[in-house]
Amino acid sequence: MFGMGWSEMVLIGIVALIVIGPKDLPNMFRAMGQFTGKARSMAREFSKAMEAAADESGVRDISKSIQAAANPQKFGLDKLREATNLTAPAYKPGGATEQLAADRAETKAKIDAAMAKSVADKQAREAIAAEQAADADMIAEDAPKPARAKAAPKPKAAAKPKAAAKPKTANSTAAAPPKAAKPRAPRKTTPKGDA
Question: How far apart are CA 72 and CA 87, in angstroms?
């Protein structure tokens, strides 16, 4: 009932016993039973009325014809199959299917042979190219190397004479007097009222 288990129903009963009290609890259960009975009877009457309306409008006849169309024996598809000879087996030994399979196998064998030949030719070309490259490397190693002419050393530029150092005096170690700062020109300002 309403997706509740026994533990939930016991809990509801205990809460009802505490809230309503043991004296009024049987009366409440009786009223609840009468209410559910009336609700069920109303639901039964409603469903019977809907079925009667469906019978009057012909919905049942339409649903029966749809079910008959969905059933191939009642629809007559078995007779149609017999008339078109679709019940006979589709595979016939020695027919076009076997000939097609044999043609495809023969074509596959030709393609595989051509691919194998192509791969073998490519490997042979790569092997010949590798041998030629190795021969060229060996010839290059055995050939005498031309002597390289040594370039004459560049003449060094004459050293520039350094300026003579100034003799240090006692005053040179003392801090130099600070330079006088230039006076700044005054800023031009306009009065606020003249603008």
Answer: 14
User: Which residues constitute the domain of residue 112?
Assistant: 92-141
Instruction: With 0.70 as the threshold, say if the pTM is over it.
Output: no
Report the 10 Å Cβ neighbour count for 175.
5
Same structural domain, 61 and 120: no
What CA dihedral angle connects 23, 26, 28 and 34, to 10 degrees? -160
Is the dihedral angle over the CA atoms 45, 51, 54, 55 positive or is it negative?
negative
Distance, first Cα to last Cα, the chain: 93
SS3 166: coil
CA distances from 118 to 109, 129, 164 (A): 14, 17, 87
Give the pLDDT confidence of 105-156 residue by residue, as tens digits: 999 999 999 999 999 999 999 999 999 988 888 887 776 666 565 655 666 6
Distance from C-alpha of 53 to C-alpha of 39, rounded to nearest angstrom = 21
The runs of H, that is alpha helices, within 21-76 are 25-57, 59-70, 72-75
Task: Give the integer Cα–Cα distance in Å for 84 and 82.
Answer: 6
Alpha helices, DSSP H, located in the chain? 6-20, 25-57, 59-70, 72-75, 77-84, 96-142, 170-173
Quick one: CA torsion of 62, 63, 65, 69, rounded to 10 degrees? 140
Q: Are residues 69 and 121 in the same domain?
A: no
The residue type at 135:
D
Number of domains in the chain: 2
